[in-house]
């Protein structure tokens, strides 16, 4: 029986060269276009290290370079945090009748309040989240108090779609006369309810094709 042919799994020189070029590219990323003598020297050292199979001195040099880069990034971050803390906080004001404990302390938020429990404002982050929700709700309610005489065609179409977009889909294509009457007389709004059964009205609550909002000027 003839001897088995031994398969050579060793990578070719071309493959090895490509691998080395990739390592050099990764280690010198962003440096090749820089003209500084220090950067160019480092690139040359990396190329020599990779092509020669590794040099402890060059590995140590790269380690020191990475540590220096990390130190600079941390120093920059610390500087930005200091600037934020040094930013002056104006005197915190609240509306009459508002409980100060329902308002999150602006000084505490920046780590500047030293009053502790004696502070008249709250130091509970949950209070700030609740306050943000209340503001969003108040803004939403304010919008809903608007009447259509303050809207344009785009806003009217948005409200109609928001209010009636999810209503029954088996309605007739005939537009509800009460809906049209409300539009014509500027009585339509967020809180308008169809007198013909509300959402159960079989007629369509949608803008007629080509509808243009008529503006009534107050004078």
Automatic annotation (TrEMBL):
Task: Give GO BP annotations, semicolon-separated.
Answer: cytoplasmic translation
Disordered as annotated region, ranges: 1-21, 47-81
| Every C3H1-type domain range | 99-126, 170-208
Q: Which molecular function terms from Gene Ontology are attached? A: mRNA binding; zinc ion binding
- What organism does this protein naturally occur in? Lepeophtheirus salmonis (Salmon louse)
Q: Which parts pass through the membrane? A: none
The protein's name is C3H1-type domain-containing protein
Q: Name one GO cellular component term.
A: cytosol
